[in-house]
């Protein structure tokens, strides 16, 4: 077996050894009774981090018929982590595992300590992020070392927490901006008021946009979002989004360049949701840049539809790159993480497209591709 790893050891116990460990634990009524009495999902792992026993709560959560379906697997295999098959060593051996809650909790337990982490697993089982709280502790059984790991699904809790914090943070900031401008207008000479009226109107428009965006994002999370299909000019959409954020960009000393195309490109899709996606991509690019930079927006025809691109000159850090599309991750602090995740959710689930990015010394480019005609 390939033992190359970027974090935890890659070696696995043989199938015969795992089967022996499973039979030994499954035959003990105290071990089985304790795990089955737990409300949370729980597993017992050997020193190679392979499951040797799983309780019914976990089996039901994963829709597995019997415990043998889980035996021998690692945590990433069980929950369908998309990174678990990226290296020969599997779960625990990739660069992404260094940031993984279960991997770090297991590492602590293997060295004799107890640990508790929250984590987000990008799962291929549902195509979504699974938020878990994991607690581990080591224990000895008949002279052999094992680890007990208990898991709690906190996806709904995290979703509600992030939605609320993101909503109130953005709304309060924008509303405060409107309030400051209106108060300042009372002290201005009459001839200077019109320019501030325009700025206040733009800020109030952003306020409404944020409220509507949050409504759509919440509806998307709960599966209740409805699409409204129409014929859309790609260039008009980009110019509209650029105009909406021009004031924000100017205030940060940034420029927005919308690259024109020889012929306009049209697609049949949901204009509101597309505007939400492009607006969030542009907003993220603005927040990632320093004064003096220029952000580029463009579109091009593809074999199956249309690709939109947003480019900013800065390179994305490795830490951000590894977690960018996870639900609760944010570069702006705890509880602020539905930007890129919301973009992916709307793109893949409702607009039937794809979202990707590249980043190097030339900058960062997000590419959102959509079909020529959205079928609902």
Q: What this model shows, in words?
A:
By secondary structure, this protein is an alpha+beta fold. The chain folds into two domains: 15-153, Beta-Lactamase; 157-371, Heat Shock Protein 90 (2-Layer Sandwich), CATH 3.30.565.10. It has helices spanning 15-26, 29-36, 56-61, 75-78, 101-110, 155-185, 193-221, 234-251, 271-288, 318-323, 339-350, and strands at 41-45, 51-54, 115-122, 129-141, 144-153, 229-233, 255-258, 266-270, 294-301, 305-312, 354-360, 363-371. The strands form three sheets. It has a five-stranded antiparallel β-sheet. The protein has a five-stranded mixed β-sheet with strand order 7-9-10-12-11. Helix 6 packs antiparallel against helix 7, helix 8 (234-251) runs parallel beside helix 9 (271-288) and helix 9 packs antiparallel against helix 11 (339-350).
The CATH class assignment of the largest domain is: Alpha Beta
State the low-pLDDT regions, or none: 333-338
Strand percent estimate: 15-25%
Outline, from the CA principal axes?
A: elongated
- Secondary-structure element order, as H and E? HHEEHHHEEEHHEHEEHEEHHEE
Number of domains: 2
Helix and strand content put the structural class at alpha+beta
What kind of oligomer do you see? single chain
Helix content: 40-55%
Q: Mind telling me which CATH architecture of the largest domain this is?
A: 2-Layer Sandwich
Brief digest:
This protein has 376 residues and is of the alpha+beta class.
List strands and helices in order, with pairings:
Elements: H1 15-26, H2 29-36, E1 41-45, E2 51-54, H3 56-61, H4 75-78, H5 101-110, E3 115-122, E4 129-141, E5 144-153, H6 155-185, H7 193-221, E6 229-233, H8 234-251, E7 255-258, E8 266-270, H9 271-288, E9 294-301, E10 305-312, H10 318-323, H11 339-350, E11 354-360, E12 363-371
Parallel strand pairs: 7-9
Antiparallel strand pairs: 1-2, 1-5, 3-4, 4-5, 6-8, 9-10, 10-12, 11-12
């Amino acid at each position: 077996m390939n033992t190359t790893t970027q974090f935890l050891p890659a070696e696995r116990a043989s199938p015969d050894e795992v089967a022996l460990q499973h039979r030994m634990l499954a035959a003990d009524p105290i071990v089985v009774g304790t795990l089955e009495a737990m409300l949370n999902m729980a597993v017992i792992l050997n020193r190679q981090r392979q499951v040797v026993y799983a309780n019914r709560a976990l089996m039901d959560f994963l829709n597995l018929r019997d415990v043998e379906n889980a035996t021998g697997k690692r945590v990433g295999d069980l929950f369908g982590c998309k990174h678990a098959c990226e290296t020969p060593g599997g779960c625990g051996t990739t660069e992404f595992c260094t940031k993984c809650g279960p991997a770090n909790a297991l590492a602590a337990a293997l060295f004799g300590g107890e640990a508790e982490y929250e984590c987000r697993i990008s799962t291929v089982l549902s195509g979504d992020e699974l938020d878990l709280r994991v607690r581990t502790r080591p224990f000895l059984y008949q002279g052999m070392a094992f680890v007990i790991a208990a898991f709690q699904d906190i996806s709904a809790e995290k979703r509600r927490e992030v939605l609320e914090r993101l909503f109130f943070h953005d709304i309060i900031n924008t509303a405060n901006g409107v309030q400051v401008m209106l108060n300042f207008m009372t002290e201005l000479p009459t001839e200077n008021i019109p320019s501030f009226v325009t700025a206040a109107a733009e800020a109030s428009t952003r306020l409404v946009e944020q409220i509507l965006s949050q409504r759509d994002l919440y509806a998307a999370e709960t599966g209740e979002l409805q699409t409204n299909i129409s014929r859309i000019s790609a260039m008009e959409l980009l110019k509209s989004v650029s105009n909406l954020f021009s004031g924000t960009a100017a205030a940060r000393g940034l420029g927005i360049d919308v690259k024109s195309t020889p012929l306009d490109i049209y697609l049949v899709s949901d204009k509101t949701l597309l505007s939400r996606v492009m607006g969030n991509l542009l907003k993220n690019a603005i927040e990632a840049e320093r004064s003096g930079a220029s952000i580029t927006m463009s579109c091009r025809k593809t074999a199956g539809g249309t690709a939109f691109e947003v480019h900013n000159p800065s390179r994305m850090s490795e830490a951000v790159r590894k977690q960018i599309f996870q639900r609760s991750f944010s570069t702006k602090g705890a509880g602020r993480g539905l930007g890129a995740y919301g973009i992916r959710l709307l793109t893949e689930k409702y607009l039937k497209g794809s979202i990707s990015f590249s980043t190097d010394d030339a900058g960062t480019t997000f590419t959102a591709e959509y079909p020529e005609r959205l079928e609902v």
